[in-house]
Protein 1
Amino acid sequence: MEYYLQVLTLAGINLMVVLGLGLLTGFTGLFSFGHAGFMCIGAYTSAILTVTLKVPFVVALIASGLVAGAISLLLGRLTLKLKGDYFLIATLGFGESVRLIFDNIEPLGGARGFSGIEKNSNFISVWLVCIIGIFFLIRLMNSRYGRNFKAIREEELASATIGIDVFKTKLLSLFISAIYAGIGGSLYAHYMTFIKPTNFQLIKSTEFTIMAIIGGLGSITGSVIGALLLTVLPELLRFVADWRMVIYGAAVVILIIVRPKGIAGGKEFKDFFFIVWIRRLFNKIFTKEDPGNGGKL
Amino acid sequence: MDQFLQQLINGVSIGSIYALMAVGYSLVYSIMNFSNFAHGGVIMLSAYMGYFAIVLLKVSFGGALLLATLGATLIAVLIERIAYRPLRKRSAPTLYFIISAMGMSILLENLVIATIGPQFKTYPIIFAESTIQLGNLSISKMDIFMLIIAAVALVGLVFFLNKTRTGIAVRAATYNARASQLMGVNVDRIVSIVFALGGALAGIAGVFFGIRYTVYAQAGIITNKAFVAAVFGGLGSLPGAIVGSILLGIIETFVAAWRSQLRDLTTFAILIAVLVFKPTGLMGKNTEDKA
């Protein structure tokens, strides 16, 4: 039981970052290989705040999100004007730079890492934060901002023509996305109680992007499925020992070739066939008029 | 002054290995417009192939270099067939290629860990520790040898691309794949050739890399620096990749001589600086997107 809770807690921490990445990648159409960097910033911020400055965990959690967000604004200002692959490469450079900077800050432990962090995250607190995160994201996507994000994803030039400030909207998306990653990092630090820069390597950013894509881009449900599945899958494959990561890699290649939309690409939970069937059935039983013709004769 | 020259020579020698790797990234980028992150895996595998050729098969160094090059060529072509061709047939967005490449690189790295194991392997000493003395400078024979092989390979590549019929077809396809297909160029074959060329150079680079450092499964991560070099020089540009690599090699060596722990950070700082101030790199083609 303990073990399952552990895996699910880690899945929740990953989900927090993937939700943010899903907003950036799935809804705004920008790709990032640097989210481990934001996570790293969040983790260290909250470690410093709680251990050195004795700030309560909740305050540190919010602060780490905001610090990661602030850094993202800086990064965004510099790099969001880049076209195509170049933004992605810039985020890759950013993520690795962040890790290497922490590697060189001796007062924070440098490469040896930062230990002695209080264990404040558990299954309940992590998933509570996730549920708040999901709820906020659903509200956001149904707002004007959400529609602006999607418009930019679909057609940048057309969005600019109808008066959307493309740069600002992208920056907002990156900002919110980095806040999620920063909070994820804080949860991670307070779950592991020990962090070191190598926890946040490029491969970690890659894993988040893979989760978002396998789950399905442009769907919050997809992010949830992706984070859960790809955290649990390597655990289920433990019996094959060293081969599990081989299978993981192969699964990524096969899925991207066979089902590039991901598991829930562009669809939300309410759009799934069985839910739609249940809703129709529900409508048939409880409404007198047939909803098919809109109530007209 | 001697110190300076010595570091310069070391820098150029590391830079030439980067160049062999970076050219692979650039070639693929020029024709398919994506960053082939599985390239590092090919380099890592070729380092292993060279190692096993020398240790198990007891072939000479030249034989090992040849075997590793052939092996890497084959693997690179195979990767393209498995991981990229199905996507290309569907003209999938660039990111799918990158994800596929990332998956492939995870697969290759862990395949090595699962079969060979995570232990570091060290090449047997090949040229002893012999150095050539030039005044106060000492240059290892291995470095000179690497530099010569790298130069020959790169010149060979440039010759192939500029002078042969197939090379011209490759250049046509990088300029406009669709139009060259209409002109009767078999683009599938050209893509395979590009991967084969990148793989062959990766094969040489892998063996050199293994000799200079050690052979281990995560070596693919180091090759990210070659990718930075390719961006530095300008993605998609062959001379850019070479110049960028040599420059990066020199900068890295000097930074390492000053403060060794800042070496990697400098590399990525250069990457960001290049992207912010001149995203097309030193000599990259201008990729203004037309909506």
Note: Chain A has twelve helices and no strands.
Protein 2
Amino acid sequence: MLIYIVRRALWLVPVLWFVATLTFVLMHAIPGGPFDEDAPRTANSARNLEVKYGLAESLPTQYVRYMRGLATGDLGISFQYQDRPVTEVIAGGMGTSATLGLLTALYVLVVGVPLGVLAGLRERSLIDYASIGFATIGASLPSFVLAIFLVTVLSVRLQWTPVLGWGDARHAILPVIALGSLPASYIARITRVAMIEVKREDYIRTARAKGLRERTVVLRHMARNALIPVLTLIGPITAHLVTGSFIIEQVFAIPGIGRAFVQAGFARDYGVIMGVTLFYATVVVGANLVVDILYGLADPRIREGRA
Amino acid sequence: MTLAVAGADVVDGLVAPRSLRRAILRRPAALVAAIIVAALCLAAAFAPLLVPYEAHQQLYFTEGTGVCQQYAPSRAHIFGVDPLCRDTFSRFVNGARISLAIGIFTQAIIIGIGMLIGGAAGLGPSWLDNLLMRFTDATYAFPDLLLIILMASALRGTALGDWAGGTFAIFLAIGIVGWVTIARLVRGEILSLRTREFVIAAQALGATKPRIFLQHLLPNMIGPVIVAATFGIPAAIFSEAALSYIGIGARPPTPSWGVMVNEGYGVMLVSVWPVLFPAAGIAVTMLCFTLLGDALREVLDPRGAR
């Protein structure tokens, strides 16, 4: 098992190297630099800027310097915030983004799992059809469109929640719903199908035959087994929360990493773009690693096979 | 990304119907979806004939400033007027053009790259398979939208990036990023088809590799590929709209639905109409393609219909 974990963890290194290289190439292969859209300046001062930010050296030199920096945890400096290290930009938004992400994950579980369990239990009932409807609409209603509908109704018409910003708990309600409804509908769907499959298993009949209370049968025997497939969703859902946060943080003006990334995109701030890309790639690959390990623990057959 | 691509669940225990027509007819939702998609495609194709105004035309030059801020639908402007005093309906129809073009044509790039990589992995020597699949895994680890934003911001300010109001850069970015699902699908299909009797028979008869691929493998895997591409359409429409909305995709005054939502958002405290039409356009179009994908999957890829 330890060998399996180590092997999976070592796989992180080439993936992150690949991501870093790809980002570097993309950022440098295309003409135009971060200072192009600033006020016009003389050739001399442009040159000075490039020297200061290390853009004047040859690409291989820049690449080696960047990679050497990465190895020591140095992501370089931001181009738009005058010498702020990229790590500082990321650390500045991390608390906010992590809070948003964790609250959303909580919402996803609290809404998705019970809905899926109930729908699977009462197949072809009203709640089943309601959950299928929720899943279909949830899968095709973009987060920012949902956000706009929510703002229109809850903030503008009813004035229950603030429109923008980040601070107290009421600010988090709309972003969490907007960001979490798609993964919640996804979890509900997967749980529902798993429940329907589990329901017909022999051990459920045995549990009933033993005279266990219905509550115990459902919670202890059915739900616990039906939730195993949900484990695999941790990876895609982490990815969804990351990419979703780029949009939702922009919609609600939440000062997180996603917002910093999008604004770095406007400004062609290479430093922040590359740093955030690498940071989030690490988060997503790390989440997948955790899933693999959990799965390896749950099912010995997986770690035997080709990792 | 799997989450956005995956469609709504198919009701369990349905037997896959034989024809597409029956699959659509026996599901009222799919029928409505097909009609709406067809109508949108027609409207997009004949947009110049259909719209009363140019997409960028500001109405105060011809109709006076009185028409501005008439956000609600009226007889003269059936979708109302937008915050910059342009006819929302004219912009909406042109926006359908952009969304559908991006949704549908990116799939051509995606299928092309996906088939190439998946095909090479499935048919080539095992070192190539290993190399390509590790490359695919690494790309998969990268959230789609992250890579699309990365490419779009790299192209920003270049001639390519500014072409067609920034829509081309987004189009390119979505197309280049989205191939992972198709590549995996194609490789998997090839590996499973390769051991089937009819392929072995063809090999025994001396058929060349390209011939086996074109004659025997391709026709058998085209169904699942079409299904995956259909689910790719709403995903691409979402990416374009979302990025244009946050200001990284198409740029004003391009009448992309995402741009329109962004412009309407600014006056939302006054009126919700300017936001409502493009937002509904995005949601309804994505929903329809998802429902259509479900129906297609039942016919073309019964095994995938779980």
Note: Chain B touches chain A through 53 residues (CB under 8 Å).
Protein 3
Amino acid sequence: MKKENSDVNENPPEHEPVESPEQLPEVIKQKFTELGLPPAEKAPGAFYQWDRNVILENLSSNIEGLEITSVRKAMEKYDWVNEYFWGLLDPKSDEILEESVHKWANGYFIRVEEGVKIKDPVQACLFVSSGAKQIVHNIIVAEPNSELHIVSGCSTPSLIEHTVHIGVSEYYVKENAKLSFTMIHGWDDYTDVHTRTAVRVLDGGEYISMYVDLTPTKFLQTNPAVYLDGPGAKAELYSTILAQRKGYYDVGGRIFMNAPDTHGTILSRTVAKDNAHAIARGLLSGNAPRTKAHLECRGLMLSDNAKIVAIPELSAANRDTELTHEATVGKIEEEQLFYLETRGLPEDEAIKLIVRGFMNIDVPSIPVTVKNEVNRLLDLQGGL
Amino acid sequence: MSLLDIINLHAGTKDKKILNGVNLSIGKQEVHIILGPNGSGKTTLARVIMGSPSFIVYEGDILFEGKSIINLPVHERARLGLAMTFQNPPEIEGVKLNDLMCATCDVRNHEKRKGPFCDLVVQDYLQRLGIPHFADRDVNVGFSGGEVKRSELAQVFTMHPKLLILDEPDSGVDIDSLKLLGKAIERYVSLHKTSLLIITHHKYILEHIKPNKIHIMKDGRFVFEGGPEYLDELESVGYVKFLESRGITA
């Protein structure tokens, strides 16, 4: 059933916006519930885009200082948005970005004003019709001393047609602001996913990202770049991937410590089964004094036909930078299985428990509700 | 009828025979002690009883309540009522001790008993073993020697086995912990009428648990068997002299 790129529909039918989260189409609600997201009405704010159309946005959300709209509307409203658009990514740097310059439909614009702290997670969901191609360009701005947590779901209904999602994202975390971004992907064997994300963090700011994909995915490429451009800025990138079937998963993260006293952590867990091919990348770049970062890539092989390639990279351009990495790829130890089996668990249950445990990443800095969502998802889909 | 019968058991790895004709019979509510020098095959015997895939049974049989178990998978042996503590259990990252214990609680009647009942049982045993705050810890990750022994006991207790094999429950443990462990075992056994097979080098743990029989293993078989009255002599003179004075050399 493999189809060529030209088979995807770049002009899928239009979709009408809805008035409230309750009116979202059932197919969309159901898909995001499967991904562990709570109903949109429970979030302090939400943005839903279906193919090219924004179907739900809280332009003036109930919370003062939080703005959730589309990038196109934001551009009409504020001149300065143009400086943020392509402010961090260079459209000439690869074909995907170049294509998005001409063909992007819309995307979310989320901004939290100076000093405003929003503890509950805001939702940003992107939904692609089967057989369609979606190109979005997103912008998030966390103004100085603000705090914002976002849960983003991206999905498609599982029908056997070639589908493409391209997500271009530029996030700005200003002085002493904190942004956490939890992205949960739910794809299928026919979907290609390309994300291009860049984040700039200024003085004392903090960016935390958690990426989860436990679904079959035909092709996935994500390798966000975080630029720690202000002194004392911090970044933490976490990911958990269950690579399966014939999927190709190229997942990584890059942290550039360009200002003094900046810190970074990259932590990834990759489980590979069936015939999946997974690449776990990580790049730490220390370019200023008193910078420190650690990278940990761990892979668990469950099949002889799968493949995991861990590519940790450390790049130092300053004498006073400390970069460390730890990469391991292995299988489930026989002793672990025997141990759990002596406690009365059959082999398949013992494997499930070990894999579920392996994928467990404790991210201290995201809200408890988000942690619980991720844990629920891991319970549902991480058990193989 | 005895609980466990081991008949002329020969077993080992693919390349090396370790057990050379072990015979052992354990009745209900009996406590048996296996002693013997390092490398004599004590742990191998325990693992072969549980069905470790690392070993092959060359000859002989193992009966549990009269039925052969040598072809049963490990978890089915556990579900019949066999359990074993590990000397050096593996770390299982990301799996909370509480979750594992709830998944294996009262394993013989698990379907009937899981749920809130198990949460209580788990908390109770962790409390009794002095590690109530370990429920949320990853299994064996960063546990000290003494903590491992406590957690192992708490885990097998919640399973409610009929025969409990303790592989060196006292190694690397300080005197205070030893007392706590000994008392916990004593209390558990008297309450649940569990049979015990204890592999040990010390008699301290036996201050709380009165054995019916001791077995000394050497080169993969029992070379001496008798009552607990031999323990003091054995402790003072050591295996070599103890066996030599009885004309046992190999």
Note: Residues 175-192 of chain B form the longest helix (18 residues).
